[in-house]
Amino acid sequence: MLESELNALMTRLGRLEDIEEILRLKHRYCLLCDQGYNGEELVKLFAPEGVWDAGERFGRFVGHEAMRDFFRRIPDVVTFAVHTAMNPIIEVEGETARAVWQAMNPSTIVVEGVPIAHWSFSQYEDKFAKVNGRWLFTYVRSDIKKVASHRDGWE
User: Fold this and answer.
1) How many domains does the chain divide into?
2) CB 26 within 8 A of CB 85
């Protein structure tokens, strides 16, 4: 094998390993959310200046302290959830990456003191950076397209 072919192969292998690590990072994020939004563990997945943004419905939080506080409070509003991240499109460029995922999450949301089963449909738009050899989120955006109760449906 020529040196140039070997270098190209090593580059491709490195990119595949980066994509796999980003997939595991997103899956860990979803699991931690589903296990009660452990703020201490969730912020470890973000760069210190990271951003978590879910628009008007849930807000935008910058940095570990703000995100930790949000994750501590959200179980009072979302008492159950199964976070999904499907159909990933991940683009790695050196030490940074971007990803888009679709999400369809069953959840229980407290509305005026009453827990109600809901569906939410959203698109995640994430950014990442490799920090000290480890991929971390720099930006997580959940663009919520629709939230509907199970009882009423979404149309």
Assistant:
1) 1
2) yes
| 117 within some domain | yes
- Is the Cα dihedral 86, 58, 149, 37 positive or negative? positive
Beta strands in the chain (DSSP E): 46-53, 60-62, 78-81, 86-93, 96-111, 114-131, 134-149
- Which residues, 6+ apart, have CB-to-CB distance to 14 below 8 Å? none
CATH code at position 40: 3.10.450.50
Q: Is residue 154 part of a domain?
A: no
Tell me what percent of the chain is helix, strand and coil, each rounded to the nearest 5.
Answer: 35, 45, 15
> Could you list the residue range(s) of the whole structural domain that residue 59 is in?
3-149
If you ran DSSP here, which 8-state letter would residue 76 be given?
Answer: G
With contact defined as beta carbons under 8 Å apart, do 140 and 124 qualify? Answer: yes
- Tens digits of residue pLDDT in 100-118: 999 999 999 999 999 999 9
Measured CA distances, 110 to 53, 58, 69, 71, 81 (Å): 20, 13, 19, 16, 12
What are 60-74's pLDDT values in tens digits?
999 999 999 999 999
